[in-house]
Amino acid sequence: MPLLPTTLESCARSVPSPSDDSLSARQSMTTLTDNSHPSHPAFVHFPITFTAITGGLDAIYYASKLPATSSLVNSVFKSLDKAIQPQAFPVLSYYSTILTILTTLPAVVTGVIQLSPVIQRDGFQSKKAKVGAVHALINDIALFATIYNWWTRSQQVGFTPSSTNVFVSSALAFPLTMYSAYLGGSLVYEYGMGFSRGNPKKTQ
Question: What is the pLDDT, as a whole number, of residue 37?
Answer without folding.
Answer: 67
